[in-house]
Amino acid sequence: MRIQIFSTDGCALCDKVIDKLFDLSVAQGSELIVTDVSLDDELLNRYGADIPVIKISGKTLRSPFSDKELFELIEQSTV
Length: 79
Description:
Elements: E1 2-7, H1 12-28, E2 31-36, H2 41-47, E3 53-56, E4 59-62, H3 67-78
Parallel strand pairs: 1-2
Antiparallel strand pairs: 1-3, 3-4
């Protein structure tokens, strides 16, 4: 499974989510891709106000979200 997180430097919430997803990706053998939206104007316009944003299997989860919502998205994507 490929997990992409749209983030930026200095985002404490993003760092917390990245830490959770990193541990999970190691345990499941998933690929975790962290994309800094501040390096791309199009991504900044699309996701900047909602970071962190998670994309898994074509599904998108925008902040704010709970741990439960995050893990439900992951569970749905592994079925």
